[in-house]
Every structure is written in C-alpha cells, then in structure tokens.
Amino acid sequence: MSTIFMPKLKQHRPLLLASESPRRIEILRNAGINFKVKTSPYEEPQLDLPPEEVAKMHALGKIIGLLPQAGIDEKDHIYIGVDTIVVAQGQLLNKPKDKADARRMLQLQQTGHAEVISGLAIIDPLTGNEIVTTEHTLVFMSQMSPAEIEWYLDTNEWEGKSGGFAIQGQASRFFEKVEGDILNVIGLPLNRLYQILKSWHVFT
To answer: Where are the domains of the chain?
Structure first.
C-alpha cells in the first residue's frame, strides 16, 4: 500500500491585525492563520464620503495609527486593517449609540436588503506592497414583528455591532439569505484577505 504525502501550506511572514475584535480574531484562528493583535489608537472621524470610501479610509487609518508604534520585532509584519459598515435604504448604519438607535436600524432593514461593506487594508512595510479594497455582501432579513424586535434588543447582542445585529448569534433566526461572503458580515472578508496574501507569496 503506497503512502500519499500531502504538502503542507506554509506561512512565510507574520501578520499583525490592527483590531481586538473577538469576531475577527476568531475567524483568523479558526482558519489556522498565525497572527498577533495590536489595538490601533485611530479614532474614526465622521467622513462625508460614499460608504465604500468610508470603510476603506477607516481600515487604512487603523494601520497608519499603528505604524509609528511598531516595535523592533514588528518591522517584518504585514499589517491588516478592517472596518465593517452596513448600509440600508441609503443610510449608513454604524454601531448603535443606544437601544433606540439599534431599534431604528433594525426597522430600516425590514424591507429590501442591507449591504455589508468591509474596508480591507493590507500593508507590507518591507516590500512596499499595499492594497486598500472592499468586500460587499447582501443580507436579507425577514420581517420582524415589533415583539421580535424588542426581544432581540433585550438580548443586548446588538451592542457594538454595525447595523445593530450579529448574524452569527441570536439574530441568525431572522435572516432569510446571504449573497456573498458571510464571514464578511461577521467581521472579516477572509477569502479576499487570503487570496491577496497568497498573491504576495505569504502562503505557499
């Protein structure tokens, strides 16, 4: 009986995620990708730009905020910045300020669909490689009754979530379908990130 040797996928460079988001960390860990985490001092300003440009500017800003603080052991890291926003009925839905704001966001998403846009910035200081792009996913929420909206608000799951929901959590029961990368909705467009890093020969 012959033995089949499967080649191992090798990661050649260390990665640094400019975010302490538990969801982004979990996505990368579950994918078996080695990385470290560092919180960026970048504070997101209000930008009068199209949503796609807002997401890209914030993703890039998180990296730029970290670069001056890079330690000696981080000079060879590839930096990753991500910012996820939700758009419904032409309105930009950031993280809700309070329960009333979360209620407004959920009500806006009761008709049609919402678009989840993630800005993805990747910078390699060693090679000078840099890319800032976006990933788009459509999410279709079923009609929620007033009682269902209030029930969900009482879970407090919406806190800190763009659009006022966590599709991987208790809100999952309210979504009919997703068109595109569901991990993008959760917080990180993993396939887009991986394909870019692979084209830079980070993975072979």
So the answer is: 15-199
The token pair that represents 162 in the structure block = 């763009």
State the Cα–Cα distance between residues 198 and 150, nearest whole angstrom: 44
What CA–CA distance (Å, rounded) separates 164 from 20? Answer: 19
User: Right CATH number for 15-199 from 3.40.50.720, 3.40.30.120, 3.40.50.300, 3.90.950.10?
Assistant: 3.90.950.10
For the chain, give percent helix, strand, coil, nearest 5: 35, 25, 40
Amino acid identity of 200? W
Helix axes 146-155, 99-108, angle to 10 degrees: 140
**Kind and range of the H or E element at 150?**
helix 146-155
Distance, in Å, from the CA atom of 42 to the CA atom of 81, rounded to the nearest integer, reads 11
pLDDT at 187 over 80: yes
Where in the sequence numbering do the catalytic residues fall?
83
- Torsion angles phi and psi, residue 150, rounded to 5: -65, -35
Whether this model's pTM surpasses 0.85? yes
pLDDT by residue (tens digit) across 81-127? 999 999 999 999 989 999 999 999 999 998 889 999 999 999 999 99
Q: Which two tokens stand for residue 122?
A: 């990747």
